[in-house]
């Protein structure tokens, strides 16, 4: 495996040098943040990021994310042009040594929590989800930080209207159509596409979601067997669904998992949870069993610690501060070392 760390580009308050100081850090996971969704990422912008990484002694082999335009998810007529642009971005990234692209196919919203500043008894701050708070939200006027995109209330209600009546099957067909359009660029460049699961892995605000459980992956690989069609295995997203057996899924799909987001969450009752330190005994996700399942089934992809808490007085971007993610990386490094050595 290759240990990586998410870096939000030059606007990130965490420097590449600090990231490099974390033991065993091979590279960063980053993106071009100033190209509108749907546009082609210019080579000069990719080159700039790459040279900053090179100077810091870090690789840039994973991109998270190249976002998918809503018109592609909606299956609108203009999608072919947008898909061609996406394929061109893949080709441009290939020229700079990128090997894996993380993306998602969630309509309108990306990951979702009801609280970005949940305070734990020990003073650490983390992200949390509370079903009762979710039910209170006014979907026409949502302004939650954390999403890669934010919409004006007018845009949001317009978009939600466009999705009205869309079935899971239609959304799935649109995903397959998208993949068939971009995979030739992956065949050319060797880049793997790694779809991020829906977070949480169920429908929200009446919008269909189609990547959150075992049956979804079976259907996806049956429809698009190309080996460049792969997964970002996100334990926090999939783990929010109590119906998912994560070690089983990690074992089953190990050869399609190109990127693993390893993180912890702790259920406080049937529906509500908060995120916690990465270690297995800090929550409900069995990180040890997942790492073991990955390694024993030949996983050889990229790993990154995922959402960390804000600790030691840090006031970092929710989920993406330095300290707790560095602790997570250290824990995961140790876990992989032990499991990999046991296997040999
Ligand atoms: C949240 C992230 C997601 C992820 C996208 C991938 O912390 O894991 O925002 O980057 O869903 O497209």
Can you walk through the features of this model?
The structure is a single chain. This protein has 344 residues and is an alpha/beta fold. The protein has one domain: TIM Barrel. Helix content is 39%, strand content 17%. It has twelve helices and twelve strands. Strands 1-2-3-4-7-8-9-12 form an eight-stranded parallel β-barrel. Strand 7, helix 8 and strand 8 form a beta-alpha-beta unit. Helix 11 packs across helix 12. The protein is globular, with a radius of gyration of 19 Å. The two termini are 15 Å apart. The protein binds D-mannose (DNO). The site of D-mannose has 12 residues, from strand 4.
Labels describing this entry:
344 residues; alpha/beta; TIM Barrel; eight-stranded parallel beta barrel; four-stranded antiparallel sheet; 12 helices; 39% helix; globular; binds D-mannose
- Give the neighbour order of strands across the main sheet: 1-2-3-4-7-8-9-12
Give the ligands present: D-mannose
CATH topology tier name? TIM Barrel
| Oligomeric form | single chain
Mean pLDDT score: 95
Per DSSP, what share of the residues sits in E-state strands of 2 or more residues?
Answer: 15-25%
Span between N and C termini? 15 Å
The stretches of 5 or more residues where confidence is low (pLDDT under 50) are none
Return the domain count: 1
Report the principal-axis shape.
Answer: globular
Instruction: Look at the structure and name the CATH superfamily.
Output: Divalent-metal-dependent TIM barrel enzymes
SSE series: EHEHEHHEEEHHHEHEHHEEEHEH
Helical stretch tally? 12
Briefly, what is this?
With 344 residues, the chain is α/β, with parallel strands linked by helices. Helices cover 39% and strands 17% of the residues. Helix 4 packs parallel to helix 7 and helix 11 packs across helix 12.
